TrEMBL record:
Domain SCP span(s) in chain numbering: 41-173
CDD domains associated with the record: CAP_PR-1 (cd05381)
Protein name: SCP domain-containing protein
InterPro entries: CAP_dom, CAP_sf, CRISP-related, V5_allergen-like
Keywords: Pathogenesis-related protein, Plant defense, Signal
Amino acid sequence: MANTTNLLHSLLFITLLFPLLISPSESTPVPRRSTKSDPAVVAAEFLQRHNTVRASHNLPPLSWSVKMVYYAKWWANQRRADCALEHSALDYGENIFWGQGREWTATQAVAAWAAEEAYYDYATNTCMPNRDCTHYTQMVWRTTTSVGCAKIKCLNEDTYVVCEYDPHGNIIGEWPY
């Protein structure tokens, strides 16, 4: 009985003190998970930038679609080896971004598409000659309700971003807003 009591006291002592013995001191840096790869942070970054552009035209905000994220990741991974700016055959709207190097952000990719607004002529519903504005028009397509995006590093360490939009925009003969 005495051995059992001593054993229980020892276990209680170890259980209570062990966390104090192994916890880091205030001077020991505690590794923290980077928010750069946190899916919620990345989603918020993509969505906020899209919705800022849409709000400038009094358009309803997009919602984040896990289904669209799935397709965006799938397509991005198909391009991992070559980072080619090729569109998938899916029946969704799709914007693709490629940036040399590893440090491109979601905000920068979406800003590049949004910058195409300068090449869009609303009166004629056309892009300026020799300019692309269809990434921008997809972003602001009134009937599009959701978006999902993925950002990967290609094998050559470049950044590749894909956003999928549902339902798709850029319908010939229709205005985006």
